[in-house]
Each structure stands twice: as structure tokens, then as C-alpha cells.
Amino acid sequence: MVIRPPSEAESFILQVTYGCSHNKCSFCPTYLNKPFQARKIEDILKDIREAQNDMSYTRRVFLADGNAMVLSNEKLVPILDGLNSGFPTLQRIGTYANADDILRKTDRELKDLVRKKLSMIYIGLESGNNKVLEKIHKGTTVESMIEAVQKAQNAGFKVSVIGLLGLGGTELWEEHAIDTGKAITAMRPLYFSLLTLMIVKGTGLYTEWKDKKFVLPEPLDMIKEMKLIIENINVSSGCIFRTNHASNYLPLSGRFPNDKEKFLRDIDLVIKEGGNSLKPEWGRGL
Fold first, then answer.
1. Cis peptide before 219 (omega within 30 of 0)
2. How many CB atoms within 10 Å of residue 226?
3. Rg of the chain in Å (alpha carbons)
4. Considering the entire predicted model, what is its pTM?
5. Which CATH number fits domain 6-275: 3.20.20.70, 3.40.50.720, 3.30.230.10, 3.40.1390.10?
6. Is 64 exposed, middle or buried (0-12, 13-18, 19+ CB in 10 A)?
7. Which pLDDT value is given to residue 33?
8. Which of 49, 67, 66 has its CA nearest to residue 12?
């Protein structure tokens, strides 16, 4: 399985690593049967050369899998050089990253990557509440993720932060929502998106859910959770907000702070009508 953000739908997906170097998040089914491994540089460069024949027009590239940023600059730079020389029209390279991937690099190393067009990072905040993060075995803290996003943006990266509705369950939904909004306020990312939790068989969270140790909020309750997140986002500069992922019950699109009140009005309308206009379960997907 290879995943990529919705915004990378037209990108050339270049397999740089297999799996995720952390791969312990209890909600994530993506790499359950794919141990982390870094590909050989010569194999990656060969893929780039082969892609030149059919995809010479490529403007965007996405480095897969879960967090190619874990690689040292010594390994990343030859890949970026190969992409830049192989695709004359290349505009941007993106990748997923964990907080530690960013924090372990120096400011100069990060700026070097940006200069070579690796300028888009997607980072999974999941929740702004440390108790929730601990429960899902995220392996980092809210404070570290805020620091990582700020550091990346100061180096010139565009950062897209991802939150996950429902992750606090019915027990911690309010803390999860409020603190997620506060974390986004502190990060001030260029992009923020919300996905909605889908419990997948084989994950640790599935076992907790089956044993009734985790209770998934009802769809309308997750919309109320979204409202609380939005209410707690207070940024002065433009932050593009989307809930266009296939997992979501309610698609929203706009920009903070300009569209904040519109988001809240749209959500209130959905709540007032009892959620009748929400996407049906059969229409959702990972």
C-alpha cells in the first residue's frame, strides 16, 4: 500500500523508503505488514531515469512512504539532485515527516533541502492533547510537533498539518478538540486538514474498540468536535483549511481567519438538521 495526501494526486510518487520509521500509532493500518526500510540510492536514481521517458513534464514529486524525511541529508540530497536534473519543469517536492525527522536536522540542512525544491512537508499532529497522543502511541508530544512545524516554516518549508476527528473517543473528545485548536494556533501552518477516524481491523485501536475500551463518537458528535476545534483556532494570517479527505462526513474548504465564522455557521446548520446531510458510511474511505 502506498498513501499520499489528496493534494499530491497528480504528483510522481517516488518510493524512497518503505513503511514508517515509527509505525507504532495504534490507529494506523497503513504499514502493518511493511517493515521500515530505506531503499538503495542507486535504485531510486534508476527509477528517476526511467520516469524521465514517460513523465518528463513532471511538475510535482512526492517522496513515499511514511516519512522519507527520516533520511539524512547525505542520502536525500543526491535524490533531490537527480529529480531536479531529470525534470526541467519540476516545481515542488513533498513528503510526510515526523517531528523528530525535522528536529534532528540543523537549520542549514533544512534550508538546503528547500533550495533543492523539497519544500512541502505533511505532518500528522493527530491531536493537540498529550494524553490522547500517549494513548495512541504517537511517540512524540504536542510541544515537539509545534517546535518542528515552526522550525520547518522558519527554514522556508510550506507545512500541512493533519488532525484526526474522533481520536479522543467519547472520553477525551472535548480535550482533544480544544487542544487541537490551540496547537494549530501555535503552529500557524499554511495548511490544516482534518480527517475522520476509521477503525481498521488489525490495529491496536481496533482491539481496544472491540474490547469496549475505546468508544468511537457518533458521526454528528464528530461534527461537534470539528466545531470545537475551529472555535479554538485563532490565527491572524492565512491558513488554508480543508476537510476534503474521503474519510470525512462533512467537506469544508476555506481559509482562516476569513472563513472561520462561515465554517461555524455551516456546521451549526448541519447540527440543527440532525446530520441528515452528512456523507453516508458507504461513501467514506481511507
1. no
2. 27
3. 19
4. 0.94
5. 3.20.20.70
6. buried
7. 86
8. 49
List of the chain residues with pLDDT < 50: none
Let me know how many helices (H) and strands (E) the chain has, helices first: 10, 10
d(CA 14, CA 232): 37
Please give the full DSSP string across 81-116, using - where no structure is assigned.
HHHHHH-TT--EEEEE--HHHHHTS-HHHHHHHHHT
Question: How far apart are the two ends of the chain, measured CA to CA in Å?
Answer: 12
pLDDT score recorded for residue 3:
83
Would you give the DSSP letter of residue 77? H
In the block, which residue shows the cell 486538514?
193
Q: Which amino acid, 1?
A: M
Chain-centroid distance of CA 81 in Å reads 25
CA pair distance 152, 150, nearest whole angstrom:
6
DSSP three-state, residue 134: helix
- Check: CB of residue 152 under 8 Å from CB of residue 121: yes
Q: Are 59 and 26 in contact (CB under 8 A)?
A: no
pLDDT at 38: 95
Locate 135 and state its grid cell: 494513548
The CB density around residue 105, as the number of other CB atoms within 10 Å, is: 22
Distances (CA, A) of 81 to 10, 64, 118, 157: 21, 17, 10, 18
Task: Yes or no: say if 48 and 15 are a contact pair by the CB < 8 Å rule.
Answer: no
